[in-house]
Amino acid sequence: MSAVDRFGNTFYREFDCRTPVPRRDDEYRSPFQRDRDRIIYSSALRRLQAKTQVFLVGEYDFYRTRLTHSIEVAQIGRSICNYLRRGSQLLREDFFIDPDLVEAVCLAHDLGHPPFGHAGETTLNRMMADHGGFEGNAQTLRILTRLINSDDRHPVGMNPTRALMDGVMKYKTLIHELDHPERYFLYADQEKHLRFIFDEQAPPPELLPGKKRDSFRSIECQIMDWADDTAYSLNDIIDGCHARFITPGRVEAWAEGQGLNRRQAGLVQQMIRTLREGSTERVFSRKIGDFITACSLGERENFMSDRTNRYAYELGLNPEIVEEANLYKTIAFDLVFDAPELQQLKFKWNFILTKIFTALRENYVDASPARYKMVSERLHHQLTEDRETGEKLRQICDYLAGMTDGFAIRTYKRLFDPDFGSIGDLI
């Protein structure tokens, strides 16, 4: 009997519940409930309340942050599990996709994102280009398996279950398998986690080269990815409307040169009507239900399906709803993310992170010994130990990636603005 089976669910086996370091049984929580709870109480999750989703944190109180986005993704993910459990003939009362596991995966999926959203991710990847790169999803895995509740003596992070690790691993390509690694890769030292989720074995030849591995995802990862797409394509549109980046005139002008088909044109006209009526939030919030009921469950066979049901089933999606989601994502990118106002902010955010990273590198890597104590006592001690350059830069990168938007801005001001800060301020 697996640890989850004791809680009335035979979908999962001991294989799914295994952790890098053995855990003691919990009398009142399943392994996946423990995963979820450890994420909820982590400082990495709390920091997401002050990290950019679309607009800089603090611009207006009702804009979404990384934390509120993650909570919405978790709610959608649980709802998909409940919908499939009630509606799929492949599931039953004692055989179902665990909503606690999916919630944990959804809450964790953005833990690795740095300040300033994808702009920050691009900057850190550039700064780490010669030393293993930076990628938000790979950093999420690093947080779960190394940084949460960890130290040099116990470098296992929160000791997550195999199912949770696999659930957040959207991309399974190692950085050295890519010619130009800009996004969507694992760090080189994460190959051991890739082997762990596949039971200590390298993926078979039919899944190579690495990019083909990215589409080989567990059912929980697929649900998280669709829940993320749902929240992104619908809720980010709502924020874009509140910020006046998406207006009837802008949408009409955008649509003229897109060559939309009849259904897409109808959806655009519906968006324009809701904008003029002031009902965008109500209409787009209701669409979440359509995106949830667009899901179905199918069976599949592969080299993992006999070891775990997580690979014996796959998520099916209504193609019309997928087309609708892609349309909204394109509108959000073209009218919001690609707008000059946000591009100017991206330029500034890149400048801020580049300057902080360079200052820390010059002090802790280029200089020997370090001239100044510029970080916390613990991190300063680690950076002044006899470590190789790549390891020190990775620790600096971890430090910057963990910053909130406000902390990054304050750090920049303390270092470079002569009129900011005093001796009484905390770093």
Kindly report the average pLDDT value: 91
- The counted number of beta strands is 2
Largest sheet: 2 strands, antiparallel
Spans of at least 5 consecutive residues with low confidence: none
Radius of gyration: 22 Å
Give the CATH superfamily of the domain at 5-67 and 111-207. Answer: Hypothetical protein af1432
So how many helices?
Answer: 19
Write down the secondary-structure element order. Answer: HHHHHHHHHHHHHHEEHHHHH
Question: Percent of residues in helical segments?
Answer: 40-55%
Shape: globular
Trace the largest sheet across and list its strands: 1-2
CATH topology of the domain at 5-67 and 111-207: Hypothetical protein af1432
Structural class: mainly alpha
The CATH class of the domain at 5-67 and 111-207 turns out to be Mainly Alpha
- Percent of residues in beta strands: under 5%
Terminal CA distance: 50 Å
CATH-level-2 architecture of the domain at 5-67 and 111-207: Orthogonal Bundle
Keywords:
single chain, 427 residues, mainly alpha, Hypothetical protein af1432, two-stranded antiparallel ribbon, 2 strands, globular
Q: Can you give a write-up of this model?
A:
By secondary structure, the protein is mostly helical. Among the domains are: 5-67 and 111-207, Hypothetical protein af1432 (Orthogonal Bundle), CATH 1.10.3210; 341-416, no CATH class. Helices cover 54% and strands 2% of the residues. A two-stranded antiparallel ribbon has the order 1-2. It is globular. The mean pLDDT is 91.
